[in-house]
């Protein structure tokens, strides 16, 4: 009698758990497809194509969009990122220092530059600095100014990222290094920072991509034709041709860099993971 | 002429050592001498201060009061070059603390190159010798994460040995290992003891202490309760606290019953 009870018990009324699950998944697919179809039907594709995908307009952008605009965007970003890495590491180490004023200065820096919009910092570098120090030339002209502005913004974020990464390395690593006779600085450089670097690879990539996009603010510094980056280049051409195709092409050029970059970083991460775990 | 005084001088000399963490006094006046070539096992219940004592010997913990000498150099002197002294003291940790981003060989060569400034070829040679010593030559190019706990600990020992230390400190080197892996690590430590290394070992391995140690030190409540040969301290403990600890260690089930009764009597100090 108990045996039959047990066999009968699991058969409940209505759908089983498995049936419910497949029904729920089926519904989600239906909703997704419906949304895509609705969007495709609602949009006016002809007008969109006219405004954003004119082949002859796109054609006249080449090769300048790559050789000039994309090259400048990458140049601004890379120099800004290198500056941000250096300054960010210094500020992170100051933040972790045993010397009070260092911690204090680093904290104030991070709060200010993390809180201000990048736009304001570009205006500040482009307008306020030349006003305050007349006659001073920033090395590299627009390129130098862009590197500094992007670097100042990036450093505030990267400093916090570095600090978190350094603190995420187990305490035993520093102890092991010190017990082998490493000085604190040498242990930091040879043992801790390489490990922290692996931990923060994903957030560092994010910061690079953010700077890559923020490089569009370089136009606030006042640029010559040769110094234009993707966004300004696209907008300028959009206004001269009275067509938005250049905006779309410029946008695709950004993705041309960020998507492969994401792929490479995921590969690097997987490789680092392989070694560590 | 200094030959004699050198031989007479203890390799490790701890005098009147106190250590507090905030209001919590963990070490309450420790005096301990360890001679050259001696193997001393420090045993005691958790929280007795034995690991803290060991960590004070290479100043990973800064003593609150007292002096520590290793090889005649006072580590507690604020002007001492602590990095230079630590090169002469090898340390093995419970959690191994290998550098996970480096291969086994790099774990051994990087400290030699950065700290001792050995050239590449010499560092590699010393590394190979020491890996051979712990029986892990075939793992030279592996990463630590791919090794078992016992292998990692043997690499950690080899890494310390590659620096050519005069003294080796072991902080519960087998406590984080699966029971079947303990033997390999203890075998390496036995070999070191046989080769005449001065060793201070915090451990719960009573068999190892009994067979290998020249002296066993029993600590409880931040003081040294008993200090003598293994036969004396483990075989025939004079103090009630030592007996209680050993009986709990050798027969945990038995100790539970005992604890209940002793709690009724008035409890034992932790």
From TrEMBL, chain A:
What's a single GO MF annotation on this record?
transmembrane transporter activity
Classification of source organism:
Bacteria, Bacillati, Actinomycetota, Actinomycetes, Kitasatosporales
Carries keyword Transmembrane?
A: yes
Tell me a GO cellular component: ATP-binding cassette (ABC) transporter complex
For membrane topology, the record states: Multi-pass membrane protein
Organism of this sequence? Streptomyces aurantiogriseus
Listed name of the protein? Amino acid ABC transporter permease
GO BP annotation list: amino acid transport
Residues in coiled coil:
none
Family classification: Belongs to the binding-protein-dependent transport system permease family. HisMQ subfamily.
Q: Which keywords annotate this record?
A: Amino-acid transport, Cell membrane, Membrane, Transmembrane, Transmembrane helix, Transport
Task: Report which superkingdom the organism of origin falls in.
Answer: Bacteria
Q: Where in the cell is it found?
A: Cell membrane
- InterPro entries, per the entry: AA_ABC_transptr_permease_3TM, ArtM/GltK/GlnP/TcyL/YhdX-like, MetI-like, MetI-like_sf
According to the record, the segments passing through the membrane are 26-43, 74-96, 108-132, 138-159, 245-265
Which Pfam families is this protein grouped with?
BPD_transp_1
Q: Where is the ABC transmembrane type-1 domain?
A: 70-265
TrEMBL record, chain B:
Kindly indicate where the leader peptide sits in this chain: none
Q: Which InterPro entries match?
A: AAA+_ATPase, ABC_ATPase_HisP-typ, ABC_transporter-like_ATP-bd, ABC_transporter-like_CS, MetN_ABC_transporter-like, P-loop_NTPase
Q: Which reaction does it catalyse?
A: a polar amino acid(out) + ATP + H2O = a polar amino acid(in) + ADP + phosphate + H(+)
Q: Where is the ABC transporter domain?
A: 12-246
Pfam families in UniProt: ABC_tran
Q: How does it sit in the membrane?
A: Peripheral membrane protein
A GO cellular component annotated for this chain's UniProt record is: plasma membrane
* Location within or outside the cell: Cell membrane
Name of the featured protein: ABC-type polar-amino-acid transporter
């Amino acid at each position: 009698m108990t045996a039959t009870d047990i066999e009968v018990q699991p058969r409940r009324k209505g759908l089983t758990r498995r049936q419910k699950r497949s029904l729920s998944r089926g519904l989600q697919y239906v909703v997704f497809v419906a949304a895509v179809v609705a969007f495709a039907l609602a949009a006016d594709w002809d007008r969109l194509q006219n405004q954003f995908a004119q082949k002859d307009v796109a054609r006249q952008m080449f090769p300048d969009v790559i050789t000039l605009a994309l090259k400048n965007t990458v140049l601004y970003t890379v120099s800004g990122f290198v500056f941000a890495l250096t300054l960010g590491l210094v500020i992170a180490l100051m933040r972790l220092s045993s010397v009070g004023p260092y911690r204090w200065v680093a904290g104030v820096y991070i709060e200010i530059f993390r809180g201000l919009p990048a736009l304001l910092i570009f205006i500040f570098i482009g307008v306020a600095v030349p006003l305050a120090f007349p006659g001073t030339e920033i090395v590299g002209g627009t390129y130098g100014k862009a590197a500094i502005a992007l670097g100042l913004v990036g450093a505030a974020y990267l400093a916090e990222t570095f600090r978190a990464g350094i603190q995420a390395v187990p305490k035993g690593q520093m102890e092991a290094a010190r017990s082998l006779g490493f000085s604190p600085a040498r242990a930091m450089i040879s043992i801790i920072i390489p490990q922290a670097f692996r931990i923060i690879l994903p957030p560092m990539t994010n910061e690079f991509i953010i700077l890559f996009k923020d490089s569009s603010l370089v136009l606030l510094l006042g640029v010559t034709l040769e110094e234009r980056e993707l966004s300004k280049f696209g907008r300028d051409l959009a206004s001269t041709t009275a067509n938005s195709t250049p905006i779309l092409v410029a946008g695709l050029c950004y993705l041309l860099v960020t998507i492969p970059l994401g792929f490479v970083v995921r590969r690097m991460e997987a490789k680092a993971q392989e070694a560590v775990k | 002429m200094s030959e004699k005084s050198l031989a007479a001088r203890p390799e490790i000399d701890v005098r009147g050592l106190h250590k507090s963490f905030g209001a919590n006094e963990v070490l309450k006046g420790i005096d301990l001498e360890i001679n050259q070539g001696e193997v001393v096992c420090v045993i005691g219940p958790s929280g007795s201060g034995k690991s803290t004592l060991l960590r004070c010997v290479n100043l990973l913990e800064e003593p609150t009061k007292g002096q520590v000498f290793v090889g005649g150099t006072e580590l507690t002197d604020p002007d001492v070059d602590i990095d230079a002294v630590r090169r002469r003291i090898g340390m093995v940790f419970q959690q191994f603390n290998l550098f996970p981003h480096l291969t086994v060989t790099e774990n051994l060569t990087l400290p030699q190159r950065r700290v001792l400034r050995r050239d590449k070829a010499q560092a590699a040679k010393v590394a190979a010798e020491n890996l051979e010593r712990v029986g892990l030559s075939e793992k030279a190019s592996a990463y630590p994460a791919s090794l078992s706990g016992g292998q990692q600990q043997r690499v950690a020992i080899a890494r310390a040995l590659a620096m050519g230390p005069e003294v080796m400190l072991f902080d519960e080197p087998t406590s984080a290992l699966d029971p079947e892996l303990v033997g390999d690590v203890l075998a390496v430590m036995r070999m070191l003891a046989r080769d005449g290394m001065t060793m201070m070992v915090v451990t719960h391995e009573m068999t190892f202490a009994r067979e290998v140690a020249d002296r066993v030190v029993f600590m409880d409540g931040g003081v040294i309760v008993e200090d003598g040969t293994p036969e004396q301290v483990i075989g025939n403990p004079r103090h009630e606290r030592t007996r209680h600890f050993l009986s709990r260690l050798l027969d945990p089930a038995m100790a539970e019953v005992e604890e209940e009764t002793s709690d009724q009597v008035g409890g034992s100090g932790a």
